[in-house]
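LAB NOTEBOOK - FOLDING QUEUE
OPERATOR: T.R.
BATCH SIZE: 2
PURPOSE: Compare the predicted structure-token outputs for two unrelated chains run back to back under identical settings.
PRIORITY: normal
REVIEWER: second-year student, initials M.K.

ITEM 1
FIELD SEQUENCE / FIELD STRUCTURE:
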Amino acid sequence: MNNNSANILFDQNGHRCIAFHSLVQGHGIQANQFLLIDGDHVALIDPGGDLTFTPLSIQISKYINIANLEIIFASHQDPDIISSLPRWLMHTDCKVATSRLWSRFLPHLASTFVNTRMESDIAERMIEIPDGGLSISFGKSVIKCLPAHYLHSVGNFQFYDPVSKILFSGDMGASLVEGNAGEPVDDFDKHVPLMEKFHQRYMGSQKVTALWADMVRQLDVEIIVPQHGKPFAGRAVIDQFLNWISNLKCGIDLLRKDSFRLILT
């Protein structure tokens, strides 16, 4: 993992997972996008905003015919996750898997598409994930959509690929790094300051993070790759992260009465 643009996370028996990093420079926060290939089947996870569409399209075209994109997995509704939606809908026949909660809102991002097609068309291209999660067929296997509500979105999902044993964790595990976001965390203690404030602000509460960690411990996971920053590779560092996040006071845990004081001018 040493390419600042793309990393092959997994490549065996026709099943591939490829991560792209820092495709857009100087515009907002660094973000990772993920391409999944199983034989002739193609999916994207959290493809990003409008600025990301063109460079990501160029990059994935090195591996697949973009017209063959079947499905986009969107962990939640944020602009850096899925605001490129109308361009993917216009240029491919893909479907979009997202929380049932956000499937009603995402069409608002795609007014251009809705204005040129029947409104029912976009509804037919949404795969609504119920709160309890869903397994979606992908090639010879499935992608498991796992509940991650309030981490940080109220309707949030993460995606687990049982073939590669990769958990695509969205904002959970995100870090604000300089340099190569594709290199795995090699010193967890030194990495904590790069993600602590982010998690304190964006994760709902320590109760939720502990419940999430208990769920992940039941999975056979070899890599956790967040949407921002470095991945966690190997059980040792994954366990360090799960133990850390299980005990982190965050979100509503940190609110006090003076968090809601009136400002009088």
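ITEM 2
FIELD SEQUENCE / FIELD STRUCTURE:
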Amino acid sequence: MQITFENFRRATGGNTTVPQHWMQATGPRSLIGPHADPCLLWLKFHGAAHGFEEDPKDYSFFEFIANKGCEFEDAWIKHYAPHAKRCMADDRDVVDIRKGLFKTIEFMQNDTPVI
């Protein structure tokens, strides 16, 4: 099966990286659920222009959890899939179509068992 990139080109407006002004998929999290707080979203995008600053953080629980997730993924791959192919060297590579999407599709077309 040959995959063409026309749909991706149209969906991204021809961008090869995610523009800074695009909202992340997790961006609307503050708009839904039992703890919805739309003010958080407004502050993220407009707070600085109105004199609001993010609280300084000496410790980030999110960073701690993200690091544990990476450690788990590395250990799982080492134990269960040592020959797995990696598409991205860093999670931030997902914003560049050439570093993530194109490599992923290439591996899929080559029937790579674990990506």
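REVIEWER COMMENT (ITEM 2): DSSP finds four helices and no strands in the chain.
FOLLOW-UP: none requested
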